[in-house]
Task: inverse folding
């Protein structure tokens, strides 16, 4: 049987075996699923601090999930597998599931030299890294995008991210973030964090989406956007927003003009008003904890 979405579901009992496999990676000596008919009840969610908030259910021909605490955390088994394996390309994800679960589905052979005919899209996106607080405007080092990704997905900022999200007072939360979170300027490197002190633009643009009700849905849409390719995508420190980093070409237009064009594109295609602060090339981007963050594979190899 050739590998496909349908074949994987057929081999894994609607995808339940995939959920079980992923959960066992985090809780190896525990019963991770208890199937009763088409419902698996409540189990621990490794993407919500291990809390017993994950509900898994067979919906038609596919198993789906939702978190009883995180309203935006919901989707099907392949969405869940993406979180664990950190793979968004569908073909790569299918092959990874096939390999890890020993499904023995037939994989179409690829020409090992095919990559020689592909264009070289390697490029280096550098940004400045600043230690907290945000009033510190002098960078301590220069980072590449994969290094920023490593910081976000590690436990380095886990504690302060959880502390921030526990603060209910908006003013206090803003103050806490400004004083405690390290940050980067993703659009370039700077001598000092100021638009006038830009050393070199990174050809990256950050789009902020705040106070989202459909965070996971928008995340999937952005990763599959037909026009812009995602370089990095992660959940904002507040927990209810997204930061979408895309590649831009400023050879003929300014950073600000490009931002306006992208903002209009998002308004037209997604009916969302984006945070206008991204118009500033020296905009600070606070670094949160997000183990589910996405990084384009071209940066992962650098």
Result:
């Amino acid at each position: 049987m050739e590998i496909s979405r349908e074949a994987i579901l057929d081999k894994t009992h609607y995808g339940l075996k995939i959920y079980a496999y992923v959960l066992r990676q985090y809780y190896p000596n525990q019963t991770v699923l208890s199937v009763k008919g088409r419902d698996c009840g409540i189990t621990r969610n490794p993407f919500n601090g291990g809390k017993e908030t994950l509900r898994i259910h067979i919906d038609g021909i596919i198993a789906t999930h939702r978190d009883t605490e995180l309203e935006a955390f919901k989707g099907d088994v392949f969405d869940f597998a993406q979180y664990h394996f950190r793979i968004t390309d569908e073909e790569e994800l299918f092959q990874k599931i096939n390999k890890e679960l020993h499904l023995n589905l037939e994989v179409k052979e690829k020409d090992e030299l095919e990559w020689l005919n592909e264009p070289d899209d390697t490029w280096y996106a550098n940004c400045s890294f600043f230690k907290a607080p945000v009033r510190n405007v002098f960078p301590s080092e220069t980072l590449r995008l994969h290094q920023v990704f490593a910081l976000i997905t590690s436990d380095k900022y886990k504690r302060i991210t959880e502390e921030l999200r526990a603060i209910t007072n908006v003013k206090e939360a803003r103050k806490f973030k400004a004083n405690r979170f390290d940050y980067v300027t993703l659009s370039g490197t700077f001598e000092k964090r100021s638009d006038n002190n830009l050393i070199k633009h990174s050809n990256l643009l950050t789009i902020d989406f705040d106070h989202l009700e459909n965070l996971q849905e928008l995340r999937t849409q952005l990763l599959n956007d037909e026009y812009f390719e995602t370089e990095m995508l992660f959940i904002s420190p507040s927990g209810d927003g997204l930061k979408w980093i895309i590649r831009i070409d400023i050879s003929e237009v300014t950073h600000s003009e490009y931002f306006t064009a992208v903002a209009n594109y998002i308004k037209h295609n997604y009916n969302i008003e984006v945070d206008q602060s991204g118009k500033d090339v020296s905009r600070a981007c606070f670094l949160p904890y997000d183990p589910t963050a996405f990084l384009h594979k071209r940066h992962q190899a650098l």
Notes: The mean pLDDT is 90.
